[in-house]
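Section 3.1: Structural characterization of target chains.
Under the original work plan, the team committed to producing a structural model for every single-chain target entering the pipeline before any wet-lab resources were allocated. The record below documents one such target. The sequence was received from the expression subgroup and is listed exactly as submitted; it comprises 200 residues.
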Amino acid sequence: LQSTTNTRDVGGLPTADGGWMRRGVLFRTDAVLAPTAADRELLAGLGLRHAIDFRSQPEVESLGGNQFGDGVQVRVLPLVDEGTAVLGEAMIRALRDRDVALAVETLGDGRARELGLLGPTNLVRSVTVRRAFAEVLRLIASDDGAPLIFNCTAGKDRTGVFAALVQRLVGVADEVIVDDYLLSNTLRADHNAMSYQHLS
């Protein structure tokens, strides 16, 4: 999409048994807040039935709701543990107010690295998150559950963890899943650089 940085098909990856994860069923993205006309046409062509928003209420209130088009049933299932909620709210404030001190307080002294290493594990240890994942998996398995798109704010961490879960369930090898998870770093590099510049 022209208006996002991290929208992609979850499928198309090889499975350990020599097959391939099917394309055109599940899609992942960062928040779709202001789609262009071309984006709207592309989204309509995907035939989406459902959209799952993993963002918290403060994130949605601050940034706005997704714009996936008519006929897409939207469910908001916040994937937040206590640490994620505090981090998300702090980073929204830091970027909005250009508050470098808050960004350093939130992510400095090795906290960013720790969050990167432990965040996904802590996320899936949350009972609330596991219940949300189960709800989405049941929806995907239903007769009219797909095509389905899911997102968080950056389409990276929460979205990446759920994508990895589904990929693992259908037999994609761990190293392939990790490479796909890390692809977000490449796709979001320019956007991240602009965020750093905004804070400098």
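The two ends are 28 Å apart (CA to CA).
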